[in-house]
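ARCHIVE CARD
Drawer: 12
Card no.: 0347
Subject: one protein chain, sequence and derived structure
Cross-reference: see card 0346
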Amino acid sequence: MSRAFVKELDEAVGGDELPDRVNSPHPNLVTPEGLAMIEAELARLHAASLKAGDDRTARAAIARDERYWVARRASAQVIETPPNPDSVRFGVTVTIARDDGREQRFRIVGEDEADPERGTLSHVSPLARALMDKQAGDVVRVGDGDIVIVAIA
């Protein structure tokens, strides 16, 4: 990257400060594990800040991330998983069968916790929104296909 570009970027964002990460407009629902993840990230950033020393670039990135996670912690609404869910809700694990024969299992979690490859799905994702309040056995239209809710736990 050209030093001129970096200098322009430094001047555009006030030198030592990076633009804030965008917070979601949706309610910040989190599982208890999600809140613990936020706390762990804040602790990691605090440690990184101590190690950054005089590195302005690193300190700016850390400060930006700290602002984001502090805001996320402040707005977090911890939702406990219902003990015996009879319909799809935040925090539950839902097993679906797609019309192509694939079966998938997802836990519906907060936006910062979501990682579909690890089996967690954001509560604001189109799939999660389509599944909300449905029960086992319900057929739900998602995209161009149908899915069947096989189980809710």
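Annotation on reverse: The mean pLDDT is 90. The beta strands are 29-30, 77-78, 93-98, 103-109, 120-122, 139-142, 145-152.
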